[in-house]
Amino acid sequence: MKNKKKQTIFLIGLAVIICLTIGYILHKNKKENYIETQEERINLYFKYNINNYKSMKTTSFKKDPMGGYFVKGYINNNKKFYFHALITDTNNYQFNGDIGYNPKTLGKLFKKDNPKKLLNPSDIIKKRDLDKTKYEAEPPLFFAL
Questions:
Q1: Residue ranges of domains in the chain
Q2: Cα–Cα distance measured from residue 129 to residue 19, given in angstroms and rounded to the nearest whole number
Q3: Do the strands 69-75 and 56-63 form a parallel or antiparallel pair, or are they unpaired?
Q4: Each residue of 20-34: pLDDT tens digit?
Q5: CA–CA gap between residue 99 and residue 119 (Å, rounded)
Q6: Has this prediction a pTM greater than 0.90?
Q7: Which end of the chain is more exposed for a tag (fewer CB within 10 A), N or C?
Q8: Which fold does the domain 1-134 belong to in CATH?
């Protein structure tokens, strides 16, 4: 009787550990997919709005206290061309052109002087008939994991 009880507790514990492990792996994959998708949206933004754009490097991707996401990076392998991108619930947690940069360095590379006239990723996707599913992803429930 005692042996059967220990065996049952062990099996329940093992099942819980397996479920938690599977949940963690699925969550981690969702988080990685979200980050990659948002990086693609930022890349698309730069591709259509920057002269002589070659590449982008993301240095950090963090959740901010207000529930949005804050992305830091630079373009064209030059840390002087740094940027800070903001992703908020306004656009369903999809990057849509909210970006900060130094107007004396990166600002001089933009195709248009007025930031309001720049194309945002959603407009680019519509204009170019790009596959919307490639450029949209839901954020994970818990970003810290």
A1: 1-134
A2: 40
A3: antiparallel
A4: 999 999 889 999 999
A5: 12
A6: no
A7: N
A8: Nuclear Transport Factor 2; Chain: A, (3.10.450)
